[in-house]
Amino acid sequence: MKLLSxxxxxxxxxxxxxxxxxxxxxxxxxxKQEYVEYVREKRFSGETHYPLFSSGPIKEFIRGITSYxxxxxxxxxxxxxxxxxxxxxLILFAFYEKFSGLxxxxxxxxxxxxxxxxxxxxxxxxxxxxxxxxxxxQLQGRPRYIIKEIxxxxxxxxxx
Length: 160
Known about the structure:
mainly alpha; 160 residues; 2 domains
């Protein structure tokens, strides 16, 4: 539950998004926030239509992450880089096994190939995802800045 000022509500209403994530928009607009503590009364009758382990809260969680952050995409790039670095260590380990006579023929090549190419594919997909995220940010139509007030200089003073 949120309590918003009329000014904040007017800014939220002017945002051109089709299906905005209201919990995020109310914070994003940047107005001063205060917490109002209250005791919620027990439900008078009926049952909740929004149980915790249903798809509703999970969808809202994913919307919250994806509406205001490209962080998960960067996380995917990190995992892809880790996979490629891991495959390089596997190559070094395979050479060590080969020259020490401990290698089992054919097993290391498959694992190294899967690790390297999985990392490469993941990085490529995440880079395309970052481009799409930038396009998405532009299409949301959010104003770049919300100006609280404009202070005019005193009369006779030069503007910079």
